[in-house]
Structure formats: structure tokens, C-alpha cells
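Both lines are given unchanged directly below:

***
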Amino acid sequence: MGTFLQPIEIGDPQGQRYERVEALVGTRASYTVLPASLLSGLGVKPIAQRPFELSDGKIINLPIGQTWIRVDGESGIRIVVFSPEEVYILGAETLSGFLLEVDPLGKRLVPVEGLLM
């Protein structure tokens, strides 16, 4: 499936301050991946390290944390991965938490029930 850019907002752990970013909708990404510098600047702290497989098959350990994410006006606390690079990926776990699916033809997010019609 293809990918496209989606505006989202990343919040601090209290949900009081948000940063608007454009994230690539990762149709193969499990979790939302964001720059460690952005997350640290918002006061998000790592809670664990997890192994992740990169597209080249290499496995690396990266920190994960939890913070507020806002997509299409809906907010929720989601798991995020701290990237050492300037990477913005909106992953499947975040999408499913908001009951959203990817419409690769229309290059947009749609409510899950919208796919059933």
C-alpha cells in the first residue's frame, strides 16, 4: 500500500501543549515514530526499550513512551517510538486506537465503519 502525509498533533504528557506536524502514514509501521528531539521538547520520557526491525532487516533497540496524539480532532494517549532521526510516521497502533483505516486510493484516513459501507 502507498503512503501519504497526514497532519497530526503531538501533545505533552499532560495534554496541555501540542505541536502540529505532518506524519507519513506508515502502512507497514506498527507504532507512531517521532523524533526524540520533538518528544523530549514536549517533556515525553521513555518508559522502556523495544526491538524494532528496519526495512533493511536490521534490528535495533529504540526507546518508547506514551503521550497525547490528536488526529482529525480526536485525542488519545498512544505509544510512540523515539527516533534518533527526523522521522514522522503515523503507525497502525495509533490508527486503530482512533478507529481509523487507510484509504490508499483516496490517500486519506477513514473511520473503520466507513470501510464497511
About this structure: The first strand starts at residue 5 and ends at 11. The beta strands are 5-11, 18-25, 32-35, 48-53, 59-71, 74-83, 89-90, 100-103, 108-111.
